[in-house]
Amino acid sequence: MWNTIIIDPMMNLLLWIYSILWHNFGLAIIVFTILIRLVTHPLTVQQLKGSQAMADLQKSKKFQELQKKYKDDKEKLQQETIKLYQELGINPLASCLPTIIQFPIMIGLYQAIMWLMSVTPGQLLNFVRHIYPFINASSLIPINNRFLWMDLAQPERVNIFGVGIPVLAILVVITTYMQSKMMTPPSTSPGNQGAAMAQSMTLMMPLFMGYIAYLYSSGLALYFLIGNIIYMVQYAAMGKLNWRAMLPKFLLRT
Amino acid sequence: MKKILIPLIFILIISTSLLTACSGAAFTPNGWAGLTVDHETAYLAYSQYIYAINVADGVEKWRYPAKPDAKTTFFSPPVLTNDGQLLVSSYGNKLISLNPATGGENWTFPSTNHFIGSPLVVGETIFAPCADNILYVIDLKGTKLWEFTAGGPLWTTPITDSENKHLFFTSMDHKIYALDIQTHELLWSKDLGSALLGTPALSQDGILYIGTFDKQMIAINSQDRNILWQSKINGWVWAGPILDEATLYFGDLSGYFYAMKTDGTTTWSLQPDGPITSSPLVTEAGIYFTTEAGTVYAVDRLGKPLWNQPIKVTIYSSPVLAGDVILITPQGGDSLLVALNLNGSPKWSYTPAKK
What we know:
The structure holds two protein chains of two kinds. Chain A contains twelve helices and four strands; from the N terminus they run H-H-H-H-H-H-H-E-E-E-E-H-H-H-H-H. Chain A is mainly α. Chain A has one domain. Chain B is built from one helix and 32 strands. In chain B, the strands form eight sheets. Chain B has a four-stranded antiparallel sheet, with no helix packed on it. In chain B, strands 5-6-7-8 form a four-stranded antiparallel sheet, with no helix packed on it. In chain B, strand 31 (337-341) and strand 32 (346-350) form a beta hairpin. At the A-B interface, helix 6, helix 7 and helix 9 of A face helix 1 of B.
């Protein structure tokens, strides 16, 4: 079921893109990422709007009054906040949806990459079983796993003075941080637990994505990086890009 | 902060588990069973171990290594040398020489990528194909003599001509290569248009026969690389053909088994219960082959079924004759080695004790 719905379509789409892009798997991943971002664009817009609405709400007088009024009664504060969401037609989960959708894509893509790269006979056999009949795969195998300095089937490291530096993972951390900052409205009430959680997420998510990028195939890290960049482009296209909001506070102080 | 950290760590663990568990092969690849035998002992390479098993009764003599290493997985049959070594190709980027009597390590030869296919030993020289595109030529003490770089990963065992002058091997880069063993020079290479995984068969008169992923059996003149004929078949050919008395025997991934004349005409074909990923065993008594669905088939030279024996567990590798038994290497069940009598009845099976 998982294979049929998630991995097979992804793997075959990647293989088809690879076949028309001069057998360059790195380019295939980049084009694949752009396609995924285009397909999920309505969700991204919804997320950005939801994020903006939350930011506006937190700035509103009514919200801040609630915070003050129920600062010692968390349960009541929660109930009143939910009521306020309903009154203003805000769905606090709307901004989470695109992030949640990323998980099956991420897991499916990782598996698709590993099948396509096929570094063992078992993987290759598995791979050939899942190729759609209209793709002439016999001439495409083996997939060229080199892209720039990377082996897309392996975690990426750039050897500098004998030390393997995970450049791609670092870029993933930086761009995920910038993306998270875009999504997280600046907190106007320091005591607000939700805002504190969101602020913490802006730190934890980049580390989490960086950890995945560090540990797994560089093809997956490339998907993260390109996805983050496209997200920022989408954000800029909506006229919402604020470089100052994306920079860490310590940089703004200097 | 603590309240957020705990769920995040939980998400981290779940996500990493999903990535590895759903595609665990990326990190701890399951092996592909490979078997070789001498008079008394079967040497089975599978997953993270080499097992030495007594052919008479299926009792384990030793296993290597003592403690499994996730990086050291095996995908091909071990090879016995004339001077008493057992060579095994390891996914852990090394070729390993063992003492076949004890399982003790003699030496290892490192590379920059995985050794998938078995090496070929010619006299005192080892030809070891490697996934780093290099054919390593090594002496029997594990010292590199020279190397040849192909255009793609090398997963299959090379073959030599009857005089051991020329070496032929296939590569994932769609090419078949011919090297001069004495001068180390490339004689020729030929692009056949699709990946080649099987070891070619070579006739006495110098014709190479090789199956392709492009659903073809191809005959090539080993002297001048000219294609003599190309015969279309039903599916991708995973393993090399066996040449016996001017007939080629091989199977394909679409689940057909063929007997093909050396002029490219199919004498007969039959459809067993699943895809065929290994070369057959051809003896005077009959032709034996296995299917991925887990059945061992015996047919005569006219394609008439003699018997079949369902093992009911996936079989990827070739049957091997050991005296009066046929050894089968099922994967995914408890038993790793099954001995069948020549009439197909089970004799013994070997299930490794958990250590």
